[in-house]
UniProtKB/TrEMBL annotation:
Record-annotated membrane-spanning stretches: none
Residue span, PTS EIIA type-2 domain: 7-153
Protein name: PTS sugar transporter subunit IIA
Pfam families reported for this sequence: PTS_EIIA_2 (PF00359)
Organism of derivation: Olsenella absiana
Keyword hit for Lyase: no
Coiled coil ranges: none
Keywords: Sugar transport, Transport
Domain of life: Bacteria
InterPro entries the record matches: PTrfase/Anion_transptr (IPR016152), PTS_EIIA_type-2_dom (IPR002178), PTS_SugarTrans_NitroReg (IPR051541)
Length: 155
């Protein structure tokens, strides 16, 4: 992960214990938190839901279900938001193959650098294929801990 992309991870963008019974609720709550901080445009919610329907982002790993939602053209200020909901949230599987993914961790990518989204996605997917980093990440109880653990493993 490039230095500039590492700066997109901030404790203010970590939301632990979000009470979201479904994907729509998670997106709605996340948008309501990101908008006042100046990270997303007014059409973010519509665009991210549309993008998720067309190109699902659920990823089942050996240790945890994750989702990596993102959308183009609705990022006002680059960011990576991390949500660990109270209970897993159902996401359709990436590439539409496999069972519904019960996401215990959602990383919303607001990367605007040319080619950056793909690069960050690859780094995160590689990270989540490793058991130890995922266990350590899931054990974090603060935004600061979540960010420092992610940065440690993303290089």
């Amino acid at each position: 992960m490039r230095g500039a992309d590492r700066e997109l991870l901030r404790p203010e963008l970590v939301f632990l214990g979000m009470d979201a019974p479904d994907r729509a609720s998670l997106f709605s709550q996340l948008g309501a938190r990101l908008a006042p901080l100046g990270y997303v445009t007014p059409d973010w919610l519509e665009r991210i839901e549309e993008r998720e329907r067309a190109y699902p982002t659920g990823l089942a790993t050996a240790t945890v279900g994750i989702a990596l939602p993102h959308a183009d053209g609705c990022v006002a200020r680059p960011y990576i938001a991390i949500v660990r909901p109270l209970a897993p949230v159902a996401f359709e599987p990436m590439a539409g193959v496999g069972d519904t993914v019960e996401a215990e961790l959602v990383l919303n990518l607001g990367v605007t650098r040319e080619g950056g989204q793909v690069e960050v996605l690859q780094g995160l997917m590689n990270l989540f294929m490793q058991e130890d980093p995922v266990r350590r990440l899931m054990a974090q109880t603060t935004g600061e801990g979540m960010v420092s653990t992610l940065l440690e493993f993303l290089g």
